[in-house]
Specification:
Layout: E1 11-12, E2 17-20, E3 29-32, H1 38-57, H2 69-72, E4 92-93, E5 100-101, H3 107-120, H4 129-142, H5 147-154, H6 159-163
Antiparallel strand pairs: 1-2, 2-3, 4-5
C-alpha cells in the first residue's frame, strides 16, 4: 500500500528522497530514492501528467485528499502534485463526495506483478512486495549501515523490530565483520 499510495509530490528528485505518508505505524517517513530509478520515475510522472490533463479536459481530474486537506486547500485535488504516482486505470465514485475520481492502482496489481516477476526470474520462494522491505533492511545491514538508520528508513517505532533483520546475517546480533576480513 505504501507504494501505490505515493503521490507525485512525494518524490523529491533533488534530495533523492521518497516521502511515505501514513505508512507503517501511521507515520510519515522519508526513505532513499535510488539514482537508478530516477529516469523511470520521471517518465511515470509524465504519464501521470498526461492522464491528469486528459481527465481535466473531460471534466474530471480530482483526487481524494486525506484528512481535512480538501477543505483547507479547495483546489489541491485538481493539482498534478496531488495525483497518485500509480493511478488506477479508471474512475471510482468517492463515497463521501459522490464524485468520480481516479484513485490509486489496486495493490493486488502490484502483488501479482511481483509474483510474476519472481516466477519469471526462476525464484523458487514466496515473494511479495513486502519481501522488498525485508531485502532492503538486510542489504543495508550487510553493507554496514547502523541499526538506527535502518530503523528510521523502515519507520519502526522500536529498534527491537528492526533487530529482527540481524538474524539473517549469520554473524551474531551486531553483524560485525572481523577487521581481519577487511584487509
Amino acid at each position: 500500500m505504501e507504494c501505490v499510495r505515493l503521490r507525485v509530490k512525494d518524490i523529491d528528485f533533488d534530495n533523492r528522497v521518497i516521502t511515505v505518508r501514513d505508512g507503517k505505524g501511521e507515520d510519515d517517513r522519508a526513505t532513499i530514492l535510488p539514482d537508478s530509478l530516477i529516469p523511470a520515475l520521471r517518465q511515470q510522472i509524465q504519464t501521470v501528467r498526461r492522464i491528469h490533463q486528459t481527465d481535466l479536459g473531460d471534466g474530471f481530474g480530482e483526487v481524494y485528499l486525506p484528512y481535512a486537506l480538501a477543505r483547507k486547500y479547495p483546489n489541491a485535488a485538481r493539482e498534478t502534485i496531488w495525483q497518485y504516482l500509480f493511478p488506477a486505470s479508471g474512475f471510482s465514485v468517492d463515497p463521501v463526495t459522490k464524485k468520480p475520481m481516479r484513485h490509486h492502482a489496486d495493490e493486488s496489481l502490484l502483488q501479482k506483478s511481483v509474483r510474476a516477476a519472481a516466477k519469471a526470474a526462476g525464484i523458487q520462494k514466496h515473494v511479495t512486495p513486502h519481501t522488498f522491505r525485508h531485502s532492503f533492511a538486510t542489504h543495508l545491514l550487510q553493507t554496514g549501515y547502523d541499526i538506527r538508520t535502518i530503523q528510521e528508513l523502515l519507520g519502526h517505532k522500536d529498534v527491537k523490530t528492526t533487530m529482527i533483520y540481524t538474524h539473517v546475517l549469520n554473524r551474531g546480533g551486531l553483524a560485525v565483520k572481523s577487521p581481519l576480513d577487511n584487509r
